[in-house]
Amino acid sequence: MATPSAPADCSPPLMILLLLLVFLPLAVSCGDDGSGGYDVVSLTQSGSALSARLELVLAGETPADAALGAGAQRLCLTASLETDSRLRVRITDGDRPRWEVPQDIIPRPAPEDDLHNAPPASSTPLQGSRVLSAAGSDLVLTVHASPFRFTVSRRSTGDVLFDTAPGLVFRDKYLEVTSALPAGRASLYGLGEQTKGSFRLRHNDTFTLWNADIGAAHVDVNLYGAHPFYMDVRPPGAAHGVLLLSSNGMDVLYGGSYVTYKVIGGVLDFYFFAGPSPLAVVDQYTQLIGRPAPMPYWSLPVPVRVPERV
Ligand SMILES: *[C@@H]1O[C@H](CO)[C@@H](O)[C@H](O)[C@H]1NC(C)=O
Which of 14-18, 30-34, 121-125, 282-286 has the highest mean pLDDT? Predict the structure, then answer.
């Protein structure tokens, strides 16, 4: 799908941010009450790819909802096992293009799009669920039709890695999706550059991905870098990675038993990396986004002067 040349929702004006601050709590409560969300109305599958059309389940719209822009009536989901260790699940507006990270920033395979060959969507939701898997892949995707949600699991252990709740929000200026996590077993690392007290993310913390030029001497603030990526290491040591490929501002709420993405624009373009070692996750991740440049050894012992305390 083409990316718009003038990404109106990439750098939202201050007014939108102010509106968000005022209306976010209201919007969240309406995502949580079970209303809204989407149903799958058609789905086609070929080999290691799947595409589906989703339709908005009509729900009462409050003024707070309207402030977040029109809700997308139709969504387009494409999912594919791009390599043996990488699953992509991409959800876009079915009627119009939206801002996405440009191809020249991160060159990547175009999403599989079988929708043109799909049978006409019926207005009645599909029943049950569909599974996408491949012999060489440890990742399995399950798409639940009504209400729409999806699950990513590890074939070799049966462990559920990502499990979205019904009630996906996809509005012009606000996207929200929540996945359940096993609070006692998941250990998350990542989610932007910030000054938290530990590398392992702590429960009930919010990670703001909004790059800011703030000195790292301050605690609990967001800094320069914002990769919406986390690694989850679970006993007895299997790790996987989750990337939401988005350059839009977002908050990620990590509650221990869940992770919620609240994004102001763009699309939902998730990549799951199978690992299973942490090193393999980083290898699979940087295979997609690009390897870091090697540093010359002579540059490493950078003389850093620590200010003397008086
Ligand atoms: C996180 O919040 C939940 C709900 O308020 C609470 O039950 C839990 O104890 C909190 N966990 C931590 C580590 O603070």
Answer: 282-286
Encoding tokens for residue 142?
A: 């399950």
Domain segments of the chain as ranges = 12-289
Q: Is the backbone of residue 23 left (phi > 0), alpha (psi -120 to 50) or beta?
A: alpha
Q: Which atom of ligand 1 is nearest to the CA of 203?
A: 13
Residues having CB within 6 Å of any atom of ligand 1 = 203-204, 256
Which atom belonging to ligand 1 lies closest to the Cα atom of 255?
1
Whole-model pTM: value is 0.83
C-beta pairs of 156-161 under 8 Å, 24+ apart in sequence: 157/238, 159/234, 159/238, 161/232, 161/240, 161/242, 161/272
Q: How far is the CA of 232 from the centre of ligand 1 (A)?
A: 19
pLDDT in tens, 206-255: 999 998 888 878 888 888 878 999 999 999 989 999 999 999 999 999 99
Question: Please, which residues have CB within 8 angstroms of residue 136's CB and are 6 or more apart in sequence?
Answer: 84
Taking the C-alpha atoms of residue 119 and residue 96, their distance in angstroms, rounded to an integer, is 20
CA distance to 36, 110, 124, 225, 231, per residue, from 152 (Å): 23, 21, 25, 27, 15
Gap between the Cα atoms of 298 and 303, Å rounded: 12
Total residue length of the chain: 310
Query: 204 C-alpha vs ligand 1 centroid, how far in Å?
Result: 6
**How far apart are the C-alpha atoms of 191 and 206, rounded to whole Å?**
10
- Tell me the CA–centroid distance for residue 255 and ligand 1, in Å: 7
Protein residue whose Cα sits closest to atom 5 of ligand 1: 204
The residue contributing the CA closest to ligand 1 atom 1 is 204
Q: Which of 181, 187, 203 to mutate to test the pocket of ligand 1 (most atoms within 8 A of CB)?
A: 203
The residue nearest atom 6 of ligand 1, judged by CA position, is 204
Query: Is domain 12-289 in CATH 2.60.40.1120, yes or no?
Result: no
